[in-house]
Amino acid sequence: MPASPEPTNPAAVIEVENLFKAYKTVQAVDGITFSIPRGRIVGLLGGNGAGKTTTIGMIMGLVSPSSGRISVLGHDMARERHAVLHRMNFESPYVDMPHRLTVRQNLTVFGMLYGVARLGERIARLAAELALGDFLDRRAGQLSAGQKTRVALAKALINDPEVLLLDEPTASLDPDTADWVRGHIERYRADHDGTILLASHNMGEVERLCDDVIMMKQGRIVDRGSPAALLARYGRDDLEEVFLDIARDRRGPIGA
Amino acid sequence: MSHAVDPGLAAARFSFRRVGAMVLRHLYLLRSSWPRTVEIIYWPIMQVSTWGFLQLYVNQHSTFFAQAVGILVGALLMWDILSRSQIGFSITFLEEMWSRNMGNLLMSPLKPSEYIVSLMVMSSIRLFIGLIPATLIAIPLFGFNIWSLGFGLGLFFAALMLTGWALGLVIAGLILRHGLGAEGLAWSLIFLMLPLCCVYYPVAQLPALVQPIAWMLAPTYVFEGLRALLIEQRLRLDLMAWAFALDLVYFSVAALVFSRLLAAARASGSLVQLGE
Prior knowledge:
The complex is a heterodimer of chains A (256) and B (276).
Chain A: E1 12-22, E2 27-37, E3 41-45, H1 52-60, E4 67-72, E5 75-76, E6 88-91, H2 103-113, H3 119-129, H4 145-157, E7 163-167, H5 175-192, E8 195-199, H6 203-209, E9 212-217, E10 220-225, H7 227-234, H8 239-247
Parallel strand pairs in A: 3-8, 3-9, 6-7, 7-8
Antiparallel strand pairs in A: 1-2, 1-4, 4-5, 9-10
Chain B: H1 7-11, H2 16-32, H3 34-61, H4 63-67, H5 71-98, H6 102-106, H7 112-142, H8 151-178, H9 184-188, H10 193-196, H11 211-214, H12 218-232, H13 237-268
């Protein structure tokens, strides 16, 4: 794998180059290349098995690529992962926080792991921003789905990350809570100039939040553009129709 | 650099604060769950009681055992140090799998070396919580004070715990690689050692063909050393040197195996779907 201390594109916070991942009989990711500049929210879309989770897993270092290169904030993730992990964070419905620990205890543990300074103040500020005050000293396992999502978001923001990876951040939430979470993600990007990679199956969410959308199918990037550009390119009124056009090979871009 | 993060802490090659975070996480857990604490104390007391009364009975019919006070109870307590240090290490690791928290840890700045040290610290804490009541009960009930072994006891403790941790590390790697389907190893693998490392009898009792295998196990030297101390009142430092040398080999090999299994888990994608 080529080693490079600097990103090819200096403006890119996340840079993925010619990334492949093969499992025994499956080519999960098949030569994808993309970069994400600072302060952008980019959506990663695709059907089940399109390679989104494997791609996010490779960016976080949970999955090792078969070949290719990933750089985050100028650090090669294959060799320098630990130089940059304290500047990143993530949220996913597929991981939990220890249920028997209270919210405050969980945030204390993760704050210490991420090297957060003045941790008590940081937890108090997050509790105020995310309205955790009523259940800060309740066990994580006793919370509702909406409360758990807010706590998971607090954990993802505990280190004030420059890069945030969100895997279906509003999965299984009621519309009101989901809207609240999306609003908070928007505020976070606006206030912190954070860079966010968002995997989601909720097309309304993607249209609302993302500056740019990467469409994946069978491990490959099949299209990319802003939600408005994709709608225009496919001649559709909503992103769900574009998603179905691509997933079912119904229709290619107009004029293609 | 994110302004919430202390640059010095973030840059540390080895962070005791991150080790402390993991220890704190498990102390919170123990504090919140009295059944977990009771379970830690329960088994050592049950075992010491059973073997202690057996020892009292045997003492009445054997001059050898009557002279070597505590040989069975002492061996049992030492076996508990070995098995509980491995099981404590493994349970602490498994708690993350059971609570689906491993993904959070693997994607945090926590380094594998820091995580392993935290497992060793928690294994020690669990061991002391479990063993102290059992050793104190053995004094009035069976007339055996393990703490009177002094310096030798410290050496026995250290050598047995190192073996337990080395085995725990390999089991943790296997669970990371193969998921919770490999969980049974955490409870069973240590018992492979029970007949071979001669906990309750000298190596000479084994068939000649098996004896070389027994001498390849570090705990064998500890149990032979314990018998020498209790029967001959002699601390065999040569045996302890062998035990520590073998432990050094075990731990180095275990760290290598763990690191290979973690790399294999990353390659196979099994860390993304940790579970059965």
